[in-house]
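notes to self, project folder thing:

trying the whole complex as one job this time. last attempt i did each chain seperately and stitching them together was a nightmare. two parts in total, labels are on each line so i dont mix them up again. if this works i'll redo the older ones the same way
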Amino acid sequence: MPGAFIPPILIGLPLLGAIFVMCTPKGESSLHRGIGLAFAALTFLVSLGLISFFNLRNPGMQMLFDVEWIPGLGAHFKTGIDGFSLTLVILTTFMMPLTLWATAHTIEKHTREFIVAMLVLEAGMIGAFVALDVFVFYVFWEVMLIPMYLLIGIWGGQRRLYASIKFVIYTMIGSLLMLVAIFYVYAKHGEVTGIYTTDLEALTKLALPYEAQVYCFGAFALAFAIKVPLFPLHTWLPDAHVEAPTAGSVILAGVLLKFGIYGFLRYAMPLFPHGAQVLAPYIAILAVVGIIYGAVVAFAQDDVKKLVAYSSVSHLGFCALGIFALTDQGIEGSIFAMLSHGLTTGGLFLGIGVLYERRHTRKLAEYGGLWKQMPVFAGLYLIVVMGSAGLPGTSGFIGEFLSLFGTFNAQETFPAVAPNYLPSPRILGALAATGVILGAVYLLYMFQKVFFGPIDKAKNGRLPDLNGRELSVFVVLAVSIILMGLFPRQILRSMEGTTKAFLSSYSTRLAEPDGPPHIFGQLPAPAAGALSANELKQTLGKLADDAAATNRALQAAAGTGATGAGGGAQ
Amino acid sequence: MSQSILGIPLLAWIPLLPILGALINLTLGRKASDRTVHTVAILAVGGAFLISAFLVFGTLWAKFQIFHAAGGAGPLPELKQVAYTWIQVGSFSVELAFRLDTLSAVMILIVTFVGTLIHIYSAGYMHGDRRYAAYFGYLNLFTGSMLILVLAANLPVMFIGWEGVGLCSFLLIGFWFENPAYADAGRKAFVVNRIGDFAFLLGMFLLYAATKDNDPSSLDFAALRGDAAQAAYVESFWGGERFAAAAGILLFIGACGKSAQIPLYVWLPDAMAGPTPVSALIHAATMVTAGVYMICRLSFLYASSTTALIVVATVGTLTALMAAFMAFAQTDLKKVLAYSTVSQLGFMFVAAGTGNWVAAIFHLGTHAFFKAGLFLGAGSVMHGMAGSGDITQMGGLRKHMPITRFTFWIYCVAIAGVPLFSGFFSKDEILAGAFFVHPPGWPAIYGKILWGALSVAALGTAFYMWRLYFLVFSGEERSETAKHAHESPVSMTGPLVVLALLATVGGFLGIPHAAHALWAKLPTDLLGTWLAPSLTSKWAEGASIMGEHSNATVGWLMLAATVMGLLGIGLAWMFYGRGPSKTVDAWVAGPLSMAHDLSKNKLYVDEIYEAIILRPFRILARGTLEIVDRFVIDTVVVNGSALAVSMFSRIARWVQNGQVQRYLVGVVLGAAAIFLITDCRRAPTFAYREIGGWIELVAKPGEGIASASAKLRWDLDGDSKPDVDQSGVEGFRSAATQRVLAGEVGSKVTLWIEDPVTKETITVTREIRLAQPAGAPGGK
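result (full assembly):
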């Protein structure tokens, strides 16, 4: 397949870079940064090749790369790109060089290890996005964890150990349950077909009984919900963000959180559609709670970084709500919102980095009046803030608008199994839309505290405006945010085919009745004693019909006879 | 005729030019001279005005002539140009499209013309400000957003402008952000507007939900106006109300935010923190009228729901009255004007809420002239008074600022509704419309009540405006500053004169038909004729909105309005004609003290909001963070479970310390536990449940060692003997799970379980009770 080598190269390049950096002598920090940046930039350039090979008309997997990896397990190293992963991979490769360029010089200790951790993290993230084999996915999923743990634990703030351990344990609990579910699916697939494989495409064809689907979906959902993070599984996020160095926060918010939503779309929902259907309303409710809760709690923060961290809880709520609306607009809006959140929240954290470098504090009360001192920064940061608040004309609006729009118009697609007491999608959409108000509340609160008012701290009166490096970063971000807001169509088009295919296969799968584990579309004929209720009913109904037909025929015959007899009597 | 430049449609250039101007000034302006900055800004808006004028008086005028000559048949006079497809997802698509019709034509002319004047004025007013370029950049950006708002061909594009003007308003109110109160005012404006925008969004979603089956492609105004969409509006939505009621009220809440109506008006008085030309442009002439414009743009929707109209008209009336009351006791020049704006917007909403769309737009236009003029005049006064807007310190300025005083006099005459000035015609049309209105299902007396209330508000308007005028310009100077006040430069007085001219003659665009009685050749209702193609003139039920009414009644109504206006001026002259009077002071201290307090403190609405919304919200936020997030989730659940694990590991550590004795204790305790568990057989039984006419029985032979291989016999028909099939073979029903038709099961079922090890047989008998009659549909 054309371009098949690109995804593996994208995984390999950062790893190669990491090896290079490791081979250089210890104290050469500018050399480490240079190599790291060069490889990250190269990865970005190569990832642009994905666009040229990407076929908009093909809704399925493209650029498939498939080699046998562990024959005994049936694991293949299989990667590919479709409409869901294309833009997310590019977001990853875009954010990484930007982050390294903006923040790597602020790392003073263990620069070499820092660059290695960042590059391995990038390889892990790209790998998890392009993996098409659950085993490969799981490996990359865990690979991401370690460098992030190190980033927080080594280069973090005061309570870095607490935060990093919390981050790891939280994530591990989720992923272990997911692993159990993966084993179950793997075993069942082997039982049904005789072929033991971890290939996602093959496993997706397996149809499990409803109950098993609910449990398995629940296990996957827990892993992904922690990653998103959905309320009430979010408390690792503020701690991780506050303690992480700027680079860690940017990548964590910009890319890592997206794996939660992406995991739902790529794994949990296609593998267990019935499970998804049963649990979707509850996840949607948690998403709405998260939108409001995250925004309300963000408002109460006195630490800028915590404020932005909670804003992520709120924003990712929109994404989670969008996918479970199960409409085109909801899903595409959700992915768009993720891309936009990567840029805007990444930008917010980078801005906090700019402030932190100058003042070494994150307390809102320490700032004020900075617009006067740093007008360029203030103007560019305002664009980022407005992008985050979802002002029309910025990227944030498109994602928020479409996911709300999709939810509001999900009357037909929203899971019908939902008990009556669950709110309708319209009410969920309306409640979620209050996030529009609350977003303005906490973001403008922050902006005002930092940039408006008099300069009442002497230190703030001497702050220099953005230097060339920072200026370049924020110009790139601001321009991307506005361009994505004004011309979202190209990006939306890249997801269109995949979204349609996803929704149609999801609904086809849902239409199949329950049964023992089998390959989808090949529901085995039930054994004599174990007919399902429906089928028994049908069979009996048919028998009854036959009997009735026979009766009618008999009666008709008798009737003719009777008439004949009557006629005779007259 | 070329309709595009550089491949961009000409219509798109109208908002694009000011936006480009903003881009230039915001990026390069800091290093440029003031002269370059304001030249760029004025040229950008002026250019937009020229293109607008060219398109309106050239292209659109010609189309209108054809349409009008054909007696209102044929294609509507409009010009739609698509820049590109903005959003497309599934069947939903939004074009970045602009439409020039007779309604948006009026708006773009007002926006670009008044905008240009105010840009020119600003060059004088903001002279020497440290952030001169930023100011003009924002002002240009605002003009561009406002033009997007009015030219938008569909609701989502309108929403770009709608929120864009909100952003610019936020930036300009908080322009002097060093003052925390000003920054607060800017934020308040944005957040309150966002509350409205939230409802606007929901209204938009609802409209799409209603019309997508007919035209799934867009929220385009043309599609929303189509017959199929119209049919959807009158469908029942909820609680017997029509769809149009729900969507209309939601969109109206959006309008309340933008156009400062109850209960969302609170941001506008605070917005006076911005530079005065900004108040003139944004908070008087253009942005705040966006809500009125939006309702007129969707006239076909509102004509479908009497409920929505009642809401609009009632809120408008209450706002007009309340704001007029609040204006009485204000002592800040701009605050009086701010409440006056809120009140006048209330008038416009009454017009829009009585189906009197033309009057709403008419008043919008005349108000843009005289209120922009009043603000610019106030700016001129404050310029002369060294920046102070305290009217208790003024007086006698007629001697020092003749041009400002003369133009201010004209504006005050116009707003008070003195005959032949613009405000007279537009306000009278609103009053008459309210008096005559009778939508389907509307209580007949309601229009008369609105008319009465509005007449009182009109009286109040005349009173507080002339109180202001007398306190500022008449009597003797009450401070040193006032004695040394000076007239403003030409760049400021020039726009004042132009606006005064328009405020005088603007009313002749809408002379009522009744005037034919005076002079048959008088061109009447020019504006109405021009707007007719863009507005609906019928209720959804088909009846005409503007019924027939006699010229005599119209004449009497005019007379009443005139009397009200003159009465207000007279009262103001009586009390304030020669400066602050002792009579007033005595009354304020005595019988009217409570009313004065209420007016001065704006009915304590801000304090009430603070107490019932803001403070509870802050407490909620703080409480949620401390109690739910930090304590319940993080401390109890998350770290609590960590603690539980570590406790458990401590116990494990105590047990596994390497001493054989301790291990032996473990072995003994473990063995005892196993004996206990294995001996505790659960009683053997079976369960049954109903599945849609079928009964499923599941044997539960207990947890004993061999229960899985126990031999089972069922008796389902209730004869107390193991069932056999027709041929008499035993073991017919021996599976653990049985599914039979509900009718085949007797009232008593017996199950025999034979333990394969002890060969002992246990009998279980249970009564079968069916929860629902057989045959009812069941779940999965």
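what i see at first glance: Chain B touches chain A through 67 residues (CB under 8 Å).
need to look closer tmrw
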